[in-house]
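quick one, 199 residues, struct below
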Amino acid sequence: MALQLVYAPSHESDLAKTGGVPPVASGTQIWINPVTDARADPSRIGVSEEEDGAPVYYAAGQNPGDFVRNVLAKELAQLGLPITANQQAATHALNLQLQTFWVNEGNNYIGEVTVGAALVDLNGQLMWQGQLTGASKRWGRTFEEDNFLEAYSDMVLDLAERVAMDPSLRTALATNQPQPYVAQPVAPQPVAPQPVAPQ
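---
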């Protein structure tokens, strides 16, 4: 299967999740740089165990890095971060390295996207860095394009919410002070229920 990556989430971003986070300093504008893809095989984006391990690739159009960048630009703005489309107007740049972008279809469609991220200011000073993971899980008919697209979309939307809620990133944006690196735990991948052995 070859998919054209189209953003089709099952729900909207939840602004309430960012309640209580520090406000961004006045005048801040964040530019998201093109995403660097560090995956071993950038063309593969999933597998269907239900179809004897049939691989899933992305087709013509935006690649996974572009998809992640475009979704984050849209959803982070919805979640209250001052994202700019004008690089010359930016006070900060968000650099992203794509480490995982995968949906596994078994009993459910289970998606995971992981990025290494760094925020730098106009002088190139590192303000924040971390590793963040977004996940998705849904049930659906086997080997259906729409189900795969929803899984990809939901996992990147989840990533956007995690970026917007990250306490160290928000502190860096609120104070304009560099934050120490704290390794973020990778979100556990949902496990499909196992069949009960007959008695």
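The chain is about 25% helix and 30% strand.
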